[in-house]
Amino acid sequence: MTERLGGGVAARLAHYLQVLTQAKKAGRGAITSHEISEYTHVNATQIRRDLSGFGTFGKRGVGYNVDALISEISTILRTAGQHNIVLIGAGRLGLAIAEADVFADHGFSIVAIVDADPAKIGTTCGGVVVQSPDELPRIVDEMTVIVGVVAVPADAAQGVADDLVRSGVRIVFNYSGALIDVPPDVTVHTTSPAVELLYALYFHLA
Amino acid sequence: MTERLGGGVAARLAHYLQVLTQAKKAGRGAITSHEISEYTHVNATQIRRDLSGFGTFGKRGVGYNVDALISEISTILRTAGQHNIVLIGAGRLGLAIAEADVFADHGFSIVAIVDADPAKIGTTCGGVVVQSPDELPRIVDEMTVIVGVVAVPADAAQGVADDLVRSGVRIVFNYSGALIDVPPDVTVHTTSPAVELLYALYFHLA
DNA sequence: TAGATTGTTAATCGATTAACAATC
DNA sequence: TAGATTGTTAATCGATTAACAATC
């Protein structure tokens, strides 16, 4: 019964989950497919069909129960558990990420922060002590870290990614903007706000 | 001849542009469709077709000239010019954004930083002075700002967005994670790194 | 009951993929 | 020439959209 989802469906479900989590925080008890559509820019019919494929989660004339839907989608995506992250780079960007609760909201826990600057090692941020890059293999192994977040300058990004891969990390989240090469069994996600900005601007100008 | 692009094509072209810009920074003179595919996760055939629809930009057996392709895509997306941004929130995240060159790389210029904290007003960051939110309508008008970047805590995001919309901003870039409601003629883009993380994790676990 | 929204179908459109000739 | 990669076609698959009955 648990067949592998297509890439499109999985991406959309993750997006719905993000909106639902925020709606819950805002105190919303129920939400309609049209509201989810507004926030995700996904067609409302598409949303209803995506969901109805896994069960009847909605109530006609009312919408979807936020708590219940969060639980259902978490189960479908199998991301209900706790997952450990290591953050590389204790600069402004790194500390801003460590402070944000966007990861914590979805069960991702930053279990270690690493920085090459000796002056930063030993300092604390969000209850997590900054450690040396030398500790990386041990940290990844002992705490079963599967995601590494790269928040270093562009010219240091490839080196950091290499360290992460050598240490056993299989998902790299790249905030540096730089292009990163990794082995085929490792996934890199490069966040590029400018891409969405260029896209929005095109339709604004056109 | 300049017909309006479909949403999918425009988004992909923006993505290619981001990769090309980074490749140029890394000193690359040429790039193949397969390389762009690796970095964007877009099918290589799809990339070649997207590009060949606008002209013959590539050289068989070699690939695409990076500089030339940047110029071509910029023209297609009509984003070759300079565009002004206002940044709201001079906290860690805001300053990290102001420091990053991800926007500058694509011709977006942060012309003003705004923060409600009186202690921050008057301080400088990246050559830009932090101003009071009261100045927002004047700034947007005088400098023809069309994009507002929201880098404030989640509970302040809606208020900031309202201020931006009242001041005339038509594209809101939301880093707070909170859900934001705006009039129909305004576009909101909410960055949610957790979405892509959940997505990557699903395929890692499955 | 009346209004609203889901669940679902059918029809269209765009994306994906494989394959390969053209050509650098 | 040999190898590589583009440009392009054709065939398949998934996304999108409109429409509407079911039902809360």
Structure description:
The structure is a homodimer of 206-residue chains. With 206 residues, chain A is α/β, with parallel strands linked by helices. Chain A has 2 domains: 70 residues, Winged helix-like DNA-binding domain superfamily/Winged helix DNA-binding domain (Arc Repressor Mutant, subunit A, Orthogonal Bundle); 111 residues, 3-Layer(aba) Sandwich (Rossmann fold), CATH 3.40.50.720. Chain A contains 8 helices and 10 strands. In chain A, the strands form 2 sheets. The first copy, chain A, has a 7-stranded mixed β-sheet. Chain A has a 3-stranded antiparallel β-sheet with strand order 1-3-2. In chain A, strand 2 and strand 3 form a beta hairpin. Chain A is globular and about 60 Å long. At the A-B interface, helix 1, helix 5, strand 10 and helix 8 of A face helix 1, helix 5, strand 10 and helix 8 of B. Chain A binds a DNA duplex (24 and 24 nucleotides) through helix 3 and strand 2.
